[in-house]
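Human: Note token order:
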Amino acid sequence: MKIRELISQYCSSTEKKGNGITIYTLDVPEPIEAPELFSYLGYLSEEPFRKIWASDQYRMIATEIDGKLTVYEHVRMANYRIQLDGLQEKYEVHKEADLTGLADAFAFAVGAHNNATRKSGTLYISHPMNVASILLKENAPLELVMAGLLHDVVEDTDVDIETISSKYGQQVADYVNAVTEPEELRQPASGNKAHTWKQRKEHTISVIKSADREIKLLSCADKLANIRDLISELSIDGECFWDKFNAPKEEQEWYYRSMLEAFATGPQNIAETRAYRELKECVEKLF
């Protein structure tokens, strides 16, 4: 379909900017294909959440983000190019140098976790890999993605936070430290083991409620990666798989729902992110 036909048929609002840009908001009942004379910018898109098309001939850019279709029409070619550059800066954030840093952090995490395994029997490194992947899909800063790869090394291995700071910088170390339980909570406590688990989780919930947005997103990615695995294991093992954990299903549900509330609390909340929305769906599915 031609772009003018799309606009004529589905446009719900039009906004004219003083810099020669007209913005059309379209209510399209179903996903669209590339309009005529538009190119699909796959390197800036991330289906199914984000699709971007551009037309040099029309000096137009069309974005479909979370189902909302917007068309930007530019009078000046220069402004059209500026918007394209801005989209590239926003969505193509991980350059070759960034990937080199991520590769180094990944190699370090592999060495730190060695051949440790998860309760499912898979290599533990699969978990931080999944966390980092979730953060990449959120276009998180490089330092946060690196922290995703390294987030468990202080808590679960002999690596200390000073080593993380020395190798990857204070920002990465601060991110890792923020999602690492204090040492006094990691040490076995006297009394009931379940009480120790509850105490640790209450501390985590309290920290995340007042945490910055980046910390909330890192923790959310961690919980999402975990719950994806739980759902997979449940489909294989059935309800008996809950016996592997330090707390019963009811307390696990309390923890995940409390974390959802913490992620959605305050001005730094992440309730609009895909990771949060998927986590919420997974919690409903699991419990």
